[in-house]
Specification:
With 463 residues, the chain is mainly alpha-helical. The protein has one domain. It is globular and about 65 Å long.
Amino acid sequence: MLKKFSEKSIYIPLLLAIILIYSFGIRNIGFRQPHHATFDEILYLRLGEQLKEDPTDYIPEVDAQLKQQHRMPAYINRPIFKHPPLFPWLISLTYLAGEADIFGSMPAILAPLLSGILIIVFTFVLAAKLYDYRVGLLAAFFLSIDPIHWICSEKIWMETTLTLFMLLALLFFFCGIVQSDKLLLLSGIFAGLALLTKYTGLISLISIFIFAVLFDEKLIYRRNFWFIFIIAAVIFSPWILWNYKVYGSSFLRDMIFVHSEFYKFLNYKVLIASLSVIAAIILLLTTRLIGHRPGFKRAPFALWAVIITLFAAMALFCPSFRAAAENAFIYNRLPQTGYEIGMFAGEPWTFYFGRLLELSPLYLLSFISMVLFSLGGSREDLLLILSASLMMFFFVIWGNYQSRYLLPVIPIFLMLAGRLVIWVWDRSNTVCRVLFLAIIGYFIIKTANVDIHIALPNSVIYF
């Protein structure tokens, strides 16, 4: 655990306020740039308008003009939209502030924009609780200039809302561990809301369960720990019942296979690899639960071994990752972006790792932090590293590479980056600090260059 501030300085809330005001202003400017609404944005706007009139009208109405402009995905013809309804419901609530307008002061942008700002707030809060206020401020600042967070906050996409609820689930889980059992119930509420936004929210519950079993077994014997999962299931259950009402006994199959990505997931290589990992996790967890504990004292070592093997394999055997890492340090080298559906579909499994570095070299700090603190790190380190590892595992095996899908893991990565910066700073002399500041400064300048050319114009869909 890093050294805590002995007293709260007035400069801490002031600096955080500056970060938040800047973040809100620059994202609002980006949203107001002349740009075409993406297909997903148009769908959410339509659903928001429909749900404002009828909270159960969850079939997007697609007119002839939209059909001419976009290739219609198969799920458009389904009797119910493929994603859970919380985000479109939030869109419908924003219309209470005014009528929908494609540009200008469209109320619908309030949902992703305010969610994005709240992500920065609670990233600061969680990092400050895990480590100290310095890490919290650094993580908040890094997040404020992060291209993925920036782009997602200025578009009417559900990723910011999903990420906010997943982050809050993690925050109250940790608070429930160190403060009060009752806060675990709030973790369950936000995990349920994450699920009701997008199925990816399930990763929060998986991370919480595996962390408890591997690294904090006392949690298993606390009643409120199990209420996390019960509450999340109760919150999510109306969506299950709604699908059952629409599809009948085949509702589970219809809920799953409406997502075209699931067919790619069934590719035998991906399926075998995924099932092998899942089987290993189940075996390890079962062994732990029945009391055979000695091997689990080496769980951090196993996590470290997996992480360092992964990065070593990418560096040694994956030319695309090495090329992306090289691009990260060349100022004028910008990542590829575009408008074509599936433009990254043929990329290798290392795509997300390389793309993070291309978008911001700050992620190099995150990767180093994962290697450094997974072995011999604190409980706080393990919570973040395990969560980030599970999220990246899911995103990689799911495929359908789009960087916006990574947003739930971005606050975690940037907390780890801030953790490393303060760790190095506290152990360095004056000369080393100056050199380190120069490196971090260049990383920030390179990230700002990506922001200026990609995030601020708000003219990309796939990146």
